[in-house]
Amino acid sequence: xxxxxxxxxxxxxxxxxxxxxxxxxxxxxxxxxxxxxxxxxxxxxxxxxxxxxxxxxxxxxxxxxxxxxxxxxxxxxxxxxxxxxxxxxxxxxxxxxxxxxxxxxxxxxxxxxxxxxxxxxxxxxxxxxxxxxxxxxxxxxxxxxxxxxxxxxxxxxxxxx
Length: 161
Prior knowledge:
The protein has 161 residues and is an alpha/beta fold. Helices cover 24% and strands 33% of the residues. The protein is built from four helices and nine strands. The strands form three sheets. A four-stranded mixed β-sheet has the order 3-2-1-4. A three-stranded parallel β-sheet has the order 6-5-9, covered by helices on one side.
């Protein structure tokens, strides 16, 4: 492994590379390859004259993912979350511009309600409060099969603990 540090951003049109090679900054810009983004990344390495085996640190950004979120053009995605928190995406936070204006327009949640599923479980700061219920997992999996989704996000309350 070498000592080159680089960052690559994959956008909808171009893939950009910036690398630190022995104190020198190298850049490259190549067309993005939407069918296989890794091809654009490898093309940018080639354009910069860098071998993958020389890379010690690699940071990967995807403007294309940000654009998909902003344009809401990403994959049909379902969400599995802790029972009782199905609607938290829609409820959101209380930092609205006009807190008491019930008629204000609110953006649609990233995952529509019919694609949000729950499982029985609960974590707390000291560990498991309610163990994961396997039958609720089976129910969620069956509902996912019927929903015909492309991707599934699993976001359980306090799962990071």
